[in-house]
């Protein structure tokens, strides 16, 4: 994977989730375009220090696993498992989330697909036979793309992300052409089911859901082992930080441009795909239809890019946890033909296929649950980064977070505050009773897996786990042995296993 591939993976995983599907709902949730815009900008800025923590540790510990690896280096096996398991939950909640929305969008484009009997209901949502078939077929396609190799999946991700950017820019320009300042009024309005009663509450309600829709930058650490030989880790670290800012800027332009085309209270309550319907009505005629279908194509590209990105990241994270004996051996198995995760991919496929079986009324619960799971992983990463600054000051860091220890501590405080708010019933960030139940079900399932793996025949020594956690260290050890035998500079060059320049740095 090149630097462009890493950027597109991260950017596509972030903006693919909500730019065309959920942006009008953000305006509704926040009580206006302005509080939604302010909330998203602040939420993005608050994520930047967290991104810097990932960037620093990603360069220092260049192996797949992300928070699992960082927490292990700082705090040991069990904390490593907790961090990895909840980040896996965050990725996996997005798989059914995306499947549900992709299904809904396809039914909107091809209404005849909706002519199917209702089999049952979940939380009042109708589950149809055609919906189940479409969702499972798409999940099978996603499964195949990812098991066929990361190179193929990365190429598809790059093309999808480029499509999002092009269509997103067209939408922003088309919306600004119809911009009307009066449509931003009232600046703040309370809907009866809002959990806030003033503009500050509206802004906060936006900030706390930003993590779910901006999650995706941590897909880079999960795939860093698959970087191109000539790409340096410090460069990848910078790409991660830049991708956060670009995604936040993109979302912010979407909110202010589309929210000003028509009266925002009316727009905010439209059903998906609200943006497509709004532009179709605003322009009318052939231009309106063209914009409608462009948004639909961009929506599908966005949904597929996030679906693909999160599948890639979750499968590799679960494989890393299986490889290091944090999860049962099943998760570490690979397809012999492609060398890609087998057990982990099957587990992720099941999660993706579940989406069409549970329906769209579970969306809000999955959003809240996924946000909490992501932030738990971010919190552990930030704390690990702070801890290692004090306890491993000489650890090689090709990239250091700007602002030093203050930035790292700030990231820790922000992520911890969001976690606490998510469990308080009277908080605007409260994830709800169903979300809390699913949270503890996942925790219990993970503890069972952990006990099976670490109390059975897979109990391994610390040195064995170290080599599994840090595969590049094995390369460095091999290189050092070759250097001792080398007679000429050419022999030393032949011994290199890491990307150009990395061996010299280490």
Walkthrough of the structure:
With 506 residues, the chain is mainly alpha-helical. It has 22 helices and two strands. The chain has a two-stranded antiparallel sheet with strand order 1-2. The longest helix is centred in the middle third of the chain and has 39 residues, at 285-323. The radius of gyration is 23 Å and the shape is globular. Mean pLDDT is 81; it is low at 496-506.
SSE map:
Elements (H helix, E strand, L loop, with lengths): L2 H13 L7 H8 L2 H28 L6 H9 L1 H33 L8 E5 L2 E4 H19 L2 H28 L21 H9 L2 H5 L4 H5 L9 H26 L5 H5 L5 H10 L1 H39 L19 H16 L4 H29 L13 H19 L8 H23 L7 H8 L1 H15 L3 H6 L7 H4 L1
Helix pairs in contact: 1-7, 1-11, 1-14, 2-3, 2-11, 3-8, 3-11, 3-16, 3-17, 4-5, 4-16, 5-6, 5-14, 5-15, 5-16, 5-18, 6-15, 7-11, 7-14, 13-14, 14-15, 16-17, 16-18
